[in-house]
Amino acid sequence: MSESQLDVLRGKIDKIDEELLILLNKRAKIVESIGKVKETQSTKRYDPVRERQLFDRIAQNNEGPFSTTALQQIFKQIFQVSLELQKDDNRSALLVSRKKKPEDTIVNINGIKVGDGKQQFVMGPCAVESYDQVYQVAEQVKKHGIGLIRGGAFKPRTSPYDFQGLGFEGLEILRNAADAFDLKVISEIMTPSDVEKALDYVDVIQVGARNMQNFDLLKEVGKTNKPVLLKRGLAATIEEFIYAAEYIMSKGNDQIILCERGIRTYEKATRNTLDITSVPILKKETHLPVAVDVVHSTGRRDLLLPAAKAALAIGADLVMAEVHPDPAVALSDSAQQMNFEQFDSFMKAINPCVNVFN
Ligand SMILES: [Mn+2]
C-alpha cells in the first residue's frame, strides 16, 4: 500500500470520526431533553427495558465485522456516560455546588471569617463539664490567639449510659466562659425544637456526624441565619454529605462549614479513617469552607499533630481539636483530648504550618 493510499483511508476514518462525534453529541442533547421530561414526571432516568430493546436490535441487525458483544459494550458505555450527563446536570443545579457559585463562600462568625484564605483553629473540651473547666480552657485558647471555642452540651453518645451532656445549662456555661475571653462558640444541637433556644447561646450550630441525615434538623438550622458546622456522617459518602449541606442551603442559610471527621472503614488502628482527600474534593465540588476534625477521626492523641499538618497542607480552612484541663478525668474522649502542656506544644508545632501551601 502506498503512502497516498494510506492517507486516503486515514482521511476516511477521520471523516467518520468527525461524524461520530457530531452524532454522539446530537444523541447526548436528546438524552438531556429526555432527562428534563423525566424530571417533571419524576420517573427514573435509568431505563433497563429500553437498553434491552436496543441490545436485541443490535443482535438482529449486526452484519459485522464487529461482534455483537463488542457493539453492545460500546453502547453500554454510551448509556453510562449519558446517565452520568444527567446526574452531572442535577449536581450542577445544587445551590452548594461550585458550578452554581464559582467564588468561595466566606462564613462570618460574628467577625471571624472562615474560608477567606486564612487557616484557623477551633479548640475546646469535648464536653462542657463545669464553668471552671471551660473557663480554664477558654483562657488557653485565647492565649494562643484562637478565636473559636468548641464544647459539647448535648452529647450524642454511643451508649445511653454514658455522660449525655449538661444540655442548656452547659450551653450557658460555654457562653459565659467564652464571653470572658471574647471567643465565639461552636456547639452541637441535636433536636430540631432546641435550635431556636440555642441561638441565644451559640455563634455556630454544629450538626454532628450522627445527625448528618437528620433532615428535620438540617431544615431547621437552614431556616436560621446562624453559621452551621456540618459534620460528615460516619458512613456517609461525599455525595450524601453534599446533599446534607444542600438541605440546609435550600432553606436559605448559606453560612455552612463542612467538616470531615473520619469515616468508618475496616481499619482499627484509628477510631475512624480520616478521609483527607475529601477536603480538596469538597472544595472543588462546593463553594463552602472545609474543616477537619483531627480528634474524632483519629481518636489518638499522638496523631493529632500529623493529621492537623496534613489537613492544613491539603487546604482545610479550619482545624478542630479538643483540649481539657485534665483529660484523664474527662467525662468523654479522654484518650484524645490534649492537656494544656500538650496544647502548647501542639500550637508551637502547628503554627508554622498555617497558610504555607496556599
Ligand atoms: Mn469529643
TrEMBL record:
The gene is aroF. The keyword Transferase applies. InterPro entries: Aldolase_TIM (IPR013785), Chorismate_mutase_GmP-bac (IPR010954), Class-I_DAHP_synthase (IPR052899), CM_dom_sf (IPR036979), CM_II_prokaryot (IPR002701), DAHP1/KDSA (IPR006218), DAHP_syn_2 (IPR006268). Residues 1-90 form the Chorismate mutase domain. The lineage of its organism: Bacteria, Bacillati, Bacillota, Bacilli, Bacillales. Keywords: Transferase. GO terms for molecular function: 3-deoxy-7-phosphoheptulonate synthase activity; aldehyde-lyase activity; chorismate mutase activity. One of its GO terms (biological process) is chorismate metabolic process. PROSITE patterns: CHORISMATE_MUT_2. Its EC number is 2.5.1.54. This is 3-deoxy-7-phosphoheptulonate synthase.
